[in-house]
Structure formats: structure tokens, C-alpha cells
Write a structure and sequence with these properties.
The structure is a homodimer of 508-residue chains.
Chain A lengths: L1 E2 L18 H9 L1 E2 L3 E2 L5 H10 L3 H4 L28 H5 L5 E7 L17 E5 L16 E4 L2 E5 L15 H18 L4 E6 L21 H22 L8 E5 L45 H4 E2 L2 E3 L8 E2 L4 E2 L3 H8 L16 H4 L11 E5 L2 E7 L2 E4 L1 E2 L4 H5 L19 E2 L5 E4 L15 H20 L9 E2 L11 H4 L11 E2 L5
Parallel strand pairs in A: 1-9, 2-12, 3-13, 4-5, 4-8
Antiparallel strand pairs in A: 2-11, 3-10, 5-6, 6-7, 9-11, 14-15, 15-16, 16-19, 17-18, 20-21
């Protein structure tokens, strides 16, 4: 279960003051909570590619070289997508007879060859990109919603999202699609892999009518409440079907909550909406006590809520401080299915099964690497995090009101230029200082000692890293979803403009 | 159970990432959690005076008029203390035969007439002031530790606190004193009131040996772990004694966590230590997602962790969003004891028993007033908070490295001058924006509507408020604890210097 832009601090069990996630809190009480769980990138597409490949985006190609340390993703006009050379989780699971479905947001490329059913999934209900819009389809089409390999309609057309009221039934549809899949596979006694990826907490935030106005937190909270309800409902169905002891469930989010906003409430951005931008100042998730949010390599951008649930196997009510990553779900899922990960490529994920099952052997002091595009910005080992580069966003953007760290400013840390600290990394102890506010003095014994243990790990990582071919360099209006498969039947094909590719511009 | 400088976000159940408070989390799971609980002042003495009188410090005299909107407390040289005109909780409880003990920090005045046994308590083990020091006793004496009305010794002398290692057995002693009192009263079948007020999380932070180095959070976390253990141990004793269904327990803290520190780790303040200053940059509590901390009237300064526990009466695992205050504990405790609060004075606390017992009648939309010294800085009604004055600390102090909002800066909100907004208050919706980062636009319909409902409440409050005689205006070296009662027996009397009173200087 992968949420979209939901923050670490959005869960009651992780300190959201309104405590409106009873089902997720119960899931944690029945399972294992990972307070030190990380995504592989502070942005959606690379994070999702990392989950499904077990590899850092810089390896699987979900990054750009058009600019230094730029976050890139798959907007409508992206040419690239998930490479055929990558092995995706459902492709390998198939070897043991697993049937796989993705419900919700794909975001690994929207051209036909990149879609889920060409990449190991047996079923899909959802959309390739973010639910931005509505668009004037002579300029750019609304995003299609697919059922398997054919479009069913488009956002804002057949799949309504009321931007004014925030009403949409999409989460409800995703819930029903997920439950239906689980029921069908259970009845057929087939092993299954469900990748449930709703996007209601990504701007523009939405919820269905029964949840609208119910939260103390405004519309964002309404969306969280519906997602929480849906998670609870799925777990309930696993119990009803009697498969809860045979089903491993993991809940997390793709990146930190989007905090982007300026101080003037009510002013909406006039920029062309992209997956990196949030729209309303009232729509803000929480990254708890962590610094900044989405787009950044501070904790608020990359530390994620994470709960593992597997009654009868995972000890109820456990809190596990293992440093873990969304990429671990790749080898972990394979291990649970009795499969081995591919041995012909570098993997960044670790098998968490010993940790989940509380075996004495744990995955020790593994590093967490914080990338932004093609640059290793920071590394965490144990409680220590060393920043080799710092950047929030450019002063130019900041002055336009785009702020990834609203209300927060740590001098020399939340910098508005890309600042290199390779020779003298900025060091934090995340146990004492989870908010990354008090850099450890470079003249201290602690600094010297810690750096001398981190540096070799970083050198080793950098010297052996073979970057993949960057997939997020080229854009082209012609590749947008003008006429997806199935459009003929629906009479919804649009004219494809002439191909005029250009280098994508990634400002952050 | 009143903690000292412990922050809202220091509890696992409220989102501290290290989740090191299993006993408090269990207390919440067995009791009622109040995420919207407030202290009456962002500083220790006034907050404690408010708890014991049920009245705002501006009424009970725990404020100063030496400067506008200044936080004041009872340092060693304060002349004043709790007025004889105030009625304290234990004084009234006595009418129903309650035996009362305070264990730990008093902080309502240290001159003989102000001490606990002169103000309704039957027993006391602890100290009148903060555990600062050690001092050269020719300049200022170390703080005495009392057993009832006689000193037993002094901090750093008979009661060791190792400033270097952080080791001290004080929390252990406070635990044993508390348990011993509970056992004695239970055996004698006497109703009792225990005010358990340890100070281990106030700088200089300390813990006993078994807890030192055990936390992921450094020494502050060690102290929290020992306090958590002690709370669990006290609850365990209530169960062992079979009185858990007859004992109402409330846990909270006196003000937000002290975040004071500069960006240069390892640099300690050279200023004369006072109760308002923290010493080591590694010693930092957490206010969760809230803005700033101790000393300020932002949420981080005044929102407190709060748990009510009363098995068999309070429904286990409840989260109650009632806006509540430490002053409510005064009428609530009286109601539980079958007593009425005094009717000859204005009370700010409300009886929470209907809320605790989940009766349909709740204490509705009561306001929370945020004072700093003699000034009403802000008001919360429902989810809305209006700031009439903003101030973090002076630019002069800030430039010296004293920062009440490290890493945080909300333009126009965390101001370094005392900024008045009476004509156009800064308005936040704390549900959508608990971090007070996005002021609601003054031109919005919402702003106009909300202000028109808040303004009459504020006018009513201000026009009817009768301030008490300020107790915290005068200081004098002669009133320090040079020769407390009992010093003769111990041979520990010091010479009292000549009285030369002066107006206290309150910089914040």
C-alpha cells in the first residue's frame, strides 16, 4: 500500500495531533512500525521505480542529467519510462504463480511500452500520471484512467474530480478494485501481489462525499481519513476471507508531505501544474518533527510512515528501529514468495524478513543514501546523517513563493543554492536532533570519529556505482496521452501533434 | 504528575521517533489522551501556580509588571511568592480529609512563608527552585533540598548531580518518596493528593546510572526514559495496592520543551544560569509539529502532553479533543473529591469530570488564553488561534545565540520585537496548520467570520479581568536560601548578606 505525498507525521501513531487514522494506528498495534523507514527519492516516479526494482533511481534510470541534483519524474510529456533492462517485482513473482495487480498511480512512464501490463502486472486499474487538470484538450489532454491495457475514460471527464469541493470517488473505486482482486484470487486459490497505490493525498487532494468535511485538518485530512478507512477495510477483508495469516501487508508513502506554499493563504499558484506542485495552502500534510518535505533530502522529504502487518508471523505492537528502505520491499517480497532476487545487477534493497520475524540476526548498520537526481546529497549510518550537498530550492523560485521548507530555516543547511560540503559534510545525530537543526561541531571528537566511519562507505558506494541510462531527460508534446489504446471505442481519440522533442527542464 | 520542560512531542504516543516512553504510551492506551491540552504560561513558576490555584498567573500574581509581556519566575533572589490570598488545591482538599504531599520542584516562592507546608501541603520532599549550580556559596548558595519544613542538604553537596556525566539519583529518590507516600496513606486508609513534580528534563538534565546512555536521544532521552519508568512504577503500585479504581492520575508538563540553543554545537552559554536557560545543545526536548518552545506563546511553548488515567471510570484508549488547561485540574480534582471551588474569586479552570467520564455534556467552546507576563498574547477558540501580540525574543538576545525557535522562522510571526496585532490579529487554523505557519488571509471571508466571534470573547475577558498584585517584581540577594530552617543541625548555615532589593530584570 503506497500512499502519495503522505507524510511521516500524518498518522496518529506518529503524532498527528488530530489522531484521525484509527485503522492505521490499529494496523501498527497489530503489526510492526518502522520509524526509520526511507524512500529512495523525495519524488514520486523515482521512488516508485525504486520500490518495484529494488534499486536506486540512479541505477534504474529514473533520474535526469539535464541539470545537477534535479528531481525528475514522469509528467505527461516525458519520453522515457521504466527500462526493459529492469526486472520488476511482479515479473519475478510470476515465476511462482503470483498474479499481480496495480490499483492507482503507475508513474513509471505512460507510453504504451512502459505501462504496467507490459511490465509484469496482470491487471491494472488506475492512471499513468498525476490527476492534474482539467486541461483544455487542444493544449494537453486530461490523464486517462485505464482498466488493464485500455483506457476507460479520463480524469475530469468520465472520472470526476471536483476541484472546488474536492469531491471524487476515486479512492472508493480503488478500494473496491483492490478488494475485488483479493477476493477473486482468494477464491481461485492463487497467490497474489496487490500494489495498491491511491493518490488522494497528492494535490489536488480529494475525498468522496462521506469523508468531505469530516476531518479537523481540512480537505487533506478528509483524504487521509478515507485512505485510513480503506486500509482498514482491506485488512478486514483479508480476515473475512481467512487469509490474514498468509498475507504480508506493508503500508508506506512515496515521499514526504508536500509543504510547498507561501505565506499568503488563498493565493494559488499560477504556474502550469505539475506533479511537483501543490495547489492550495490549506492542503498540507505533516512530516512530524522532521525538516522540510517533498523534493528535499532532509528527513521531511524522505522519511516515511511504514507499517508491516502479518498476523501470526509479525509480533503485534512491535516498534523496529532498523534503518529500512522502500527498496527493501523488493527482496523481502521475493524472499516471502520463496524467490531469489536477480543476481546479475546491483540491488540496493535488503531482505527484511529476519527483521520482520524478529530473528536475532538483523540487517546491522546499513547505510541510507539520499539522492536528488544524479547527486548523492546525504548518507545516514546509524543515528548519524552526513550532508554532502544541501539545497532546498533556488532563490529565484523561493522569491516566487515556492518554498519546500515553509516556516523553517536552518542557516547553512536549508540553502537556496546548491551548496557542496564534500570536504566537510554537515553532520547531524538524528536521535538527539531528528529535526536536523544542530549540526555537530566539525572540531569535535564525535565529528571526526563519525566521519571517519562514514567516509569509506560513501567512497565505496560512489566508486562502484554504475548509473543507469537516464530516462528523464527528454520531453515531447507528441508523447502525451492524446490517443491511448481504447480511445477508438470510446470516441475519445485526440489528434497527436508533431513530435518536437526537447530537453526537459527540471527546476528543483 | 507534572514534568519539567517536557514537550508535547516527547512521548512515543505523540510522535517522538525513538518511541522510548512505553509506560506513558500504555497509560494513554489505558486512559484518555488530550492532544489539545495547555499550560497557563510558557514558564515553570507561573504554570505551577496556575495548576494549584486554578487561576491565570495574571490573577494569582505570578507575573511581573517590570517589563511588558515578560516571562517571570522564582529564581533564588526573588522576593515574592504565592500570595496568602490564594487558595491552593491541598488547602481545600484538606476539608475532606485529604493528606497532601509534593515531591519535587515547588517553585512558588522559596522564602519560609511561601513554602509548601505553609500552603496546604502536609509533606514535601524536594526543592524550592531549579537545580542549577554548583555555585560558589560566597556568591550564591546551592539550592536546598527539603524534607517537609527542614532542609536535608543542598544540590551538588548532599544531593549529587554530576554535570559532566549527567548522573543523579534524584528521580529515583522522587519515585521512592512518591511510592512511600502512596503506600502509607493506603495502609492508613486516608484519602491522598500527591503532586509528583520531578525536574530531570529541566536543564541541567540528569538521570540515574541505569538509564544513562540508554536512549537514542542522548541525555535528555535518558531522563525521559527514567521518568517514563517512574510513571509506570507508580501506576503499578496503585494496582498492587488495589487502589487503581479509586485513584485519578493526571500526567502533564509545566511548559513546552526548551529549544534554546544556537547553531554551534558544543558552545555552552556563559550567562549566569537561570531557570529560563538550557545548557547543552544536545539537551533538547521535542514539541512535535508545533512552533517554537518554552518562553513563547506559540503552540510549542504552551501545548502539553496530557493523559488522564482512572481504570474503571475513564474509558481506555480514548482520545479527547476537548480544549483543556492545567488550570482545569483544580476544579476537576475538587469535584472528584466532592468539593466545590471557592466562589469568591474568578477561576479560569473548568471541571473536566463530564469530559473524563464521557458524559454527553462537554465543556464546549471554551477559550484558551495565552499570556506572557502581563499581556494577553493570543487566544484559541475551537480550531482557531488569534495572535494579538507576537514575540520570540529580542534581536539583541537572538544575536547572542539565544533562540527560542531554532531552525524555525515564520515571517511576521516569530518576530524579534514585540509586535502588536490588536487591530488585525494573526489568525491560524490549528487543525489544518498545527505549526502556525500559514496565517489566514485577512481579506478572506473565513478571517472576518472567525474574528467576529473571537473578538467579543477577548473583550469580555479583558474588561472583566482584575490582575493580582504582581509577585515577581522585586529581587534581593538577601532572600536567597543562605540559612534555611534546619541548617543549624547540619552545620550548613551561610551568612546572609545585607538586604538591597532591586527590580528584577526579565529579558524575555
Amino acid at each position: 500500500m503506497l500512499m502519495d505525498d503522505m507524510g511521516w507525521g500524518d498518522l496518529g501513531v506518529l503524532g498527528q495531533p488530530s489522531k484521525e487514522t484509527p485503522n492505521l494506528d490499529a494496523m501498527a498495534a497489530q503489526g510492526m512500525l518502522f520509524p526509520n523507514f526511507y524512500t529512495a527519492n523525495p519524488l514520486c516516479s523515482p521512488s516508485r521505480a525504486a520500490l518495484l526494482t529494488g534499486r536506486l533511481p540512479v541505477r534504474n534510470g529514473f533520474y535526469t542529467t539535464n541539470g545537477h541534483a534535479r528531481n525528475a519524474y514522469t509528467p505527461q510529456e516525458i519520453v522515457g519510462g521504466i527500462s526493459k533492462d529492469e526486472m520488476l517485482l511482479p515479473q519475478i513473482m510470476k515465476k511462482k504463480g503470483y498474479v499481480s495487480k496495480i490499483v492507482g498511480k503507475w508513474h513509471l512512464g505512460h507510453r504504451p511500452q512502459y505501462l504496467p501490463l507490459k511490465n509484469g502486472f496482470d491487471e491494472w486499474f488506475g492512471a499513468p500520471d498525476c490527476h492534474f487538470g482539467p486541461y483544455n484538450s487542444s493544449i494537453r489532454p486530461n490523464i486517462p484512467v485505464y482498466n488493464n491495457s485500455e483506457m476507460l475514460g479520463r480524469y475530469y471527464e468520465e472520472f470526476k474530480i471536483d476541484r472546488k469541493t474536492g469531491e471524487s470517488n476515486l479512492t472508493r473505486m480503488y478500494l473496491l478494485e483492490g478488494v475485488d482482486f483479493i477476493r477473486r484470487q482468494t477464491e481461485a486459490q492463487r497467490p497474489f501481489f496487490l500494489y495498491w497505490a491511491p493518490d488522494a493525498t497528492h494535490a489536488p487532494v480529494y475525498a468522496s462525499k462521506p469523508f468531505l468535511g469530516k476531518s479537523q485538518r481540512g480537505r487533506y485530512g478528509d483524504a487521509v481519513m478515507e485512505l485510513d478507512y480503506s486500509v482498514g477495510h482491506i485488512l478486514l477483508w483479508l480476515k473475512r476471507l481467512g487469509i490474514e495469516n498468509d498475507t504480508f501487508v506493508f503500508f508506506t508513502s512515496d515521499n514526504g508531505a508536500a509543504l510547498m506554499s507561501g505565506p499568503n493563504e488563498g493565493k494559488h499558484y499560477k504556474l502550469i501544474p505539475t506533479c511537483t506542485q501543490s495547489f492550495s495552502l490549506r492542503v498540507t500534510g505533516s512530516n512530524g518533527p522532521f525538516l522540510c518535505g517533498k523534493e528535499t533530502t532532509f528527513e521531511g522529504g524522505m522519511r516515511e510512515p511504514a507499517i508491516a502487518w502479518w498476523p501470526g508471523h509479525i509480533k503485534a505492537g512491535t516498534v523496529n528501529f532498523q534503518l529500512a528502505s522502500v527498496m527493501d520491499l523488493f527482496p523481502t517480497s521475493l524472499a516471502l514468495a520463496g524467490l531469489s532476487p536477480p543476481d546479475d545487477r546491483a540491488l540496493d534493497g535488503l531482505d527484511l524478513t529476519p527483521v520482520l520475524l524478529n530473528h536475532p540476526h538483523k540487517q546491522g548498520n546499513r547505510p541510507i543514501f539520499y539522492y536528488r537526481g544524479n547527486e548523492l546529497m546525504a548518507v545516514r549510518i546509524g543515528q548519524y546523517k552526513a550532508h554532502y550537498w544541501t539545497w532546498s530550492n533556488s532563490l529565484e523560485e523561493f522569491n516566487k513563493g515556492i518554498n519546500f521548507c515553509p516556516g523553517e530555516e536552518v542557516p547553512g543547511v536549508t540553502t537556496h543554492d546548491q551548496k557542496e560540503h564534500t570536504l566537510q559534510p554537515i553532520l547531524f545525530h538524528l536521535g538527539r536532533d531528528p529535526g536536523e537543526k544542530f549540526p555537530i561541531s566539525v572540531s569535535s571528537h564525535e565529528y571526526q570519529k563519525v566521519l571517519s566511519s562514514i567516509s569509506p562507505v560513501v567512497e565505496q558506494h560512489k566508486s562502484t556505482l554504475v548509473p543507469g541510462v537516464p530516462q528523464l531527460n527528454m520531453c515531447d508534446m507528441a508523447v502525451m496521452n492524446w490517443a491511448p489504446t481504447g480511445c477508438e471505442k470510446l470516441g475519445k481519440c485526440l489528434n497527436v501533434p508533431k513530435s518536437q522533442p526537447w530537453k526537459c527542464d527540471w527546476p528543483h
